[in-house]
Amino acid sequence: MTRRCSGDQDSVVPLLGSRTLVRELAHTMGLHVTVPYSNWFRKGQVGGWVTEYGNFLTFATVRGASHMVPFAQPDRALGLFRSIVSGQRLPNTTNPPID
């Protein structure tokens, strides 16, 4: 699986350009959207947004991150990295505790 990520506040490589590039790449490769643009969560908060194309290509953003994602949002970057290394999807639900 190939993954690409971007900070949603990146002024060096703007999010819209990255998202468009990945979408066009998926189209060229004949991949279809399997998970539409939706949010992913980290510790009960929106960590960013993600789109998956088949089981091959994923594009994820990290909320509140600039060009250097691990520096700007280290915890969210770690969650994204763990997901990539373990080969799992980014969490797309929260499980808030019921008091």
Q: What do you see in this structure?
A:
- Pfam families: Peptidase_S10.
- Belongs to the peptidase S10 family.
- One of its GO terms (molecular function) is serine-type carboxypeptidase activity.
- With 99 residues, the protein is α+β, with helices and mostly antiparallel strands.
- The protein has a single domain (2-86), classed as Rossmann fold (3-Layer(aba) Sandwich).
- Helices cover 31% and strands 31% of the residues.
- It is built from three helices and four strands.
- Strands 1-4-3-2 form a four-stranded mixed β-sheet.
- β2 (33-42) and β3 (45-53) form a beta hairpin.
- The model has no long low-confidence stretch (mean pLDDT 87).
**What is the terminal-to-terminal distance?**
39 Å
Low-confidence stretches: none
Beta-strand proportion: 25-35%
Gyration radius (Cα, Å) is 13 Å
Give short descriptive properties of this protein:
99 residues; alpha+beta; Rossmann fold; 4-stranded mixed sheet; 3 helices; 31% strand; globular
In short:
It is built from three helices and four strands, in the order E-H-E-E-E-H-H. The protein has 99 residues and is α+β, with helices and mostly antiparallel strands. Pfam families: Peptidase_S10.
Draw up the topology in text.
Blueprint: E1 2-7, H1 15-28, E2 33-42, E3 45-53, E4 57-62, H2 69-72, H3 74-86
